[in-house]
Protein: Transmembrane 9 superfamily member
Amino acid sequence: MKTRTNFGLLPLCALSVLYSCSAFYLPGLAPVSFCKEVKEEGECQTQIQLFVNRLDSVESVLPYEYDVFDFCQDAKESRPSENLGQVLFGERIESSPYKENNAIKWASRWDYILVSMPHTNIQWFSIMNSLVIVLFLSGMVAMIMLRTLHKDIARYNQVDQEDAQEESGWKQVHGDVFRPPRKGMLLSVFLGQGTQIFIMTFITLFLACLGFLSPANRGALMTCAVVLWVLLGTPAGYVSARLYKTFGGEKWKTNVLLTALLCPGIIFADFFLMNLILWVEGSSAAIPFGTLVAILALWFGISVPLTFLGAYFGFKKPAIEQPVRTNQIPRQIPEQSFFTKPIPGIVMGGILPFGCIFIQLFFILNSIWSHQMYYMFGFLFLVFIILLITCSEATVLLCYFHLCAEDYHWWWRSFLTSGFTAVYLFIYAIHYFFSKLQIVGAASTILYFGYTTIMVLIFFLFTGTIGFFSSFWFVNKIYSVVKVD
Structure:
């Protein structure tokens, strides 16, 4: 078993034995003064409290409380308050019966953690790898936009009426390109939830990048993400309702209910099953019943009403106006080549976005399953921005190729093209499980893949939403500048 120790305070200066010292670690923690002699109450502290959080093992993902064994119990046990993120990660903070090792200098207390951290040069290699992919895609998109697409528009706008019947390419499907997609209800629900996840992720990573969600303030990252998700129900309801109205849908009550309950319900059901396994195994990661009730209260008491509020404003707005009219009779789609068929295009679309993140993904999985601390949020935020650009450019590129092949079914395809990156994420998680981890036991295996499923679903909605809105903007743009009789 391996012990993870949580120090309440990590000073930047060595603790003097004769003089008081004010110390703090990173933004998010208030400075505390220490002194050797006892002075007035509240002026300074004479002892540095040592706290522990849980016992971990490389062979299991089941954490246990630090005093689960008799020899680890503290006679004067004290439990400080824990935030929501710590409870969700199964950290039960308590005092330790053991004292600090005075032979170790205070400035070197985190050396053993920093040694296990990913080196900066590997992170820079990850960034350079992602930038090369972005530059390649940007060059392809620029070539299409500035040369091919510009020539297409000029040719379409100058063609004579007699030659109109001989045209080919993306202009020919102008009467069908904005035909509402099948399963438009489900697509609008996914896009509403994806918008909510996107805004939540952006704000959380931005705050972490600024240092407000320091690793020293344990659980702050998860707490911030959960609170933001709860408060961002309004954008989810608005986007879902507005798009559903644009698709011509009329079952607005079903749309709102699905937006508020479908994806969160799937995640909560998975999370609840994983929590049952933790409870049966007696793990400290099992969420108390009161916390589950509090999460449900946040969901139904705040998130759901905010989703209804956003949907109300979304349905009050007029449907998004399309630049061209839709024909009554659908156009027949010509025979497609292998690369322009739906499944090969979707499978290829997720390769490049995944190539931008797979190195960073290794460090993130290490922090979750191999008990390593992740603190390079600046690199992570940069990779996040690169992922946005890559998903957008790859989806727009494939959307253009499909429209040139006169296949106008782009709604779902644009969502699934970038969303397929989540499938590669799942495949990589399987590879990571068998090649990097030493986990044994059915319970730990089920927990690993259960939590991985939650990650994959969230990532699928996130990347799919990016691809859809990029293609939506692209298609509206090109058909608004071409002359249509």
Confidence is low (pLDDT under 50) at residues 1-28, 161-166. The beta strands are 2-7, 21-23, 32-34, 50-57, 60-64, 94-95. The longest helix spans residues 120-158. The CA atoms of residues 293 and 299 lie 10 Å apart.
